[in-house]
Design a protein that fits this description.
This protein has about 160 residues and is of the alpha+beta class. It has helices at about 5-15, 55-65, 95-100, 135-145, and strands at about 20-25, 30-40, 40, 45-55, 65-75, 80-90, 115-130, 155-160.
């Protein structure tokens, strides 16, 4: 697989999985904190976007340390992506409107809420694990256990973005 197609696969997985654990450094920088977020991968911008609330700790944590990890997991398809990058919190009303969807009403009354911010992650590195699916992987693991061989569980690559 070429470097270019590995990059494409990372972006395809980000766009397909959509939900991720965003990992930041806490206010003291000693601990890591993770929380689930709805990701909007936009390869044409070389960015992963999230809607966030300026009143929450993650925004303060990013202002203190911009280095983040975004971990995507599709357990049913046994597909995973871990992205390392730098994050920025933006007050970009046009981007808020572009990213808004009805599910966001669980957090804000409307896209015009002045507390909504856009969190942009610029990826620098990613690692992905892409298997042929849970059923095929389970069969391959069972066969390997019976034969003593090592199963081919799919593709694992580290990718510079």
């Amino acid at each position: 697989m070429s470097h270019h197609s590995d990059q494409d696969r990372v972006w395809d997985l980000i766009e397909d999985i959509k939900f991720a654990m965003l990992v930041t450094h806490d206010g003291d920088g000693d601990e890591l904190r993770a929380r689930p977020m709805h990701a909007h991968g936009q390869r044409e911008d070389d960015s992963i976007y999230f809607l966030t609330d300026r009143r929450h700790h993650k925004d303060d944590e990013i202002n203190l340390n911009e280095n983040v990890c975004v971990a995507f997991a599709d357990n049913s398809g046994m597909r995973y992506v871990s992205v390392t990058g730098t994050a920025t919190v933006l007050d970009d009303r046009a981007k808020v409107h572009a990213l808004w969807d009805p599910s966001n009403k669980a957090f804000w009354d409307s896209e015009d809420d002045p507390n909504i911010r856009v969190l942009r992650v610029r990826p620098s590195m990613a690692e992905f694990w892409d298997s042929p699916g849970k059923l095929v992987t389970t069969v391959k693991m069972a066969a390997a256990a019976l034969t003593g061989s090592k199963p081919d569980l799919g593709i694992n690559r580290k990718v510079t973005l």
